[in-house]
Design a protein that fits this description.
- Strands 3-2-1-4-5 form a five-stranded mixed beta sheet, sandwiched between helices.
- It is about 45% helix and about 10% strand.
- α3 crosses α4, α8 (about 190-195) packs across α10 (about 215-240) and α10 (about 215-240) runs antiparallel to α11.
- The chain has one domain (about 15-65, about 75-280): Nucleotidyltransferase, domain 5 (2-Layer Sandwich).
- The chain is α/β, with parallel strands linked by helices and about 290 residues long.
C-alpha cells in the first residue's frame, strides 16, 4: 500500500465547512459546522481518531449521454449510467460519537464532488459504512471517476475497501444482514424499521430524477441525509450485534445519534417518526421492577 498523498489538502482547508455541505449560504449550516469544528481548520478532526466511520449514501440521475438498451429499460441501469448529484455522509469517531453530518461539496458539480470525496478518503482513510454500497454506491462513484478521469487510489489500492467478506475498510450492512448473499437481501426501508428507524419518509428513490430536473435539489439533499442518518442507526445496532460494542456503548452512541437527528432541521422527517424506545432497546421497560 502506498503512502497517503498529502497534496491538495489545502484546497479542502480553504473550503472549510463546505466539504460536507456546510456552505456559507445557511446560518444554520454555519452553526452546525462550528459545533463540529475542531480547534484546527478543516478536517483535522479525523487526525485524532485511530478509526473513524464514514456512513455514506448517494443520489443519482441518469446520464443522458449514455444509451440504455431496450432490454434494460425496466431494470436498474448499470453503474456507469448513474450521474452523482448528491453524496451525503455522517462521520462517527472511534467512540461512535457523531462528529459531522452533511452533503459533500454540495455547491459543486459531479466532478467536484467526486474529486473532494476521493481526496478525503485517501488522506483520512475512514472505514466506509453503506447499505448496498458494494452493489451500487461505490461502483457508481468508481465509474463516474472513470468518466471524469479522477484518481480514486484509496478504493483501488486498499484491499479491504473492495474485499467483500471483510468489515475492515468498508462495512456493507446489506451484505451482513443477508449473510453475503446466502439469504435474500432486504431494503434499507425494512431493516431500518426493524431497528426502530422510520424507513422511507415521503420520498422514494424513483422520485429523485424528476425532483432534480424540477430544481428541487435541496429536497433531494435532505432526503439523502435522512437515509444516511437511518443507515447510521442500523450501523450502531449491527456493531452491537457483531460484538464490536457492548450494550452501554450502544445506548450512549444511539442516544447521541438521536439527539443529533432531532437537532438538525434537515432530518425532521426522521426525528418525527423514529421509535426511540425500540432504538434504545426498550431500556425503560427492561428495568427490573422494584419490590417494596
Amino acid at each position: 500500500m502506498g503512502r497517503p498523498v498529502r497534496q491538495g489538502w489545502g484546497s479542502i482547508r480553504k473550503n472549510r465547512g463546505k466539504l460536507l455541505g456546510f456552505g456559507a449560504e445557511s446560518a444554520a449550516a454555519r452553526a452546525i459546522s462550528r459545533s463540529f469544528a475542531s480547534p484546527d481548520e478543516g478536517w483535522p478532526i479525523l487526525r485524532r481518531v485511530s478509526t473513524s466511520f464514514l456512513v455514506l449514501d448517494i443520489e443519482t440521475v441518469l446520464d443522458p449521454e449514455l444509451p440504455i438498451q431496450a432490454s434494460d429499460a425496466e431494470r436498474l441501469p448499470a453503474p456507469p449510467h448513474h450521474k452523482v448529484v448528491v453524496l451525503g455522509a455522517l462521520l462517527f469517531d472511534a467512540a461512535y460519537e457523531v462528529k459531522r453530518i452533511g452533503v459533500i461539496s454540495e455547491l459543486k458539480d459531479e466532478a467536484g464532488i467526486l474529486e473532494d470525496f476521493a481526496r478525503m478518503l485517501e488522506e483520512r482513510r475512514p472505514c466506509l459504512v453503506t447499505f448496498n454500497g458494494r452493489g451500487f454506491d461505490m461502483p457508481v462513484i468508481a465509474t463516474r471517476c472513470l468518466r471524469h478521469g479522477i484518481p480514486f487510489r484509496h478504493y483501488y489500492r486498499s484491499r479491504d475497501v473492495r474485499y467483500r467478506f471483510s468489515p475492515e475498510g468498508h462495512l456493507d450492512l446489506m451484505d451482513y444482514v443477508a449473510d453475503f448473499g446466502a439469504a435474500k437481501p432486504s431494503k434499507l426501508d425494512i431493516v431500518a424499521k426493524l431497528c426502530g428507524m422510520p424507513g422511507k419518509v415521503g420520498i422514494d428513490g424513483k422520485d429523485v430524477g424528476p425532483m432534480v430536473h424540477a430544481g428541487r435539489i435541496q429536497e433531494v439533499r435532505n432526503y439523502c441525509l435522512c437515509d444516511v442518518a437511518q443507515t447510521a442507526g442500523v450501523f450502531l445496532r449491527m456493531q452491537l450485534v457483531r460484538g464490536e460494542i457492548d450494550r452501554e456503548q450502544y445506548l450512549t452512541a444511539m442516544r447521541g445519534l438521536i439527539a443529533q437527528i432531532r437537532a438538525d432541521a434537515r432530518l425532521q422527517p426522521v426525528a418525527e417518526a423514529l421509535d426511540e424506545r425500540r432504538l434504545m432497546l426498550d431500556t425503560e421497560l427492561s428495568q427490573p421492577a422494584l419490590v417494596s
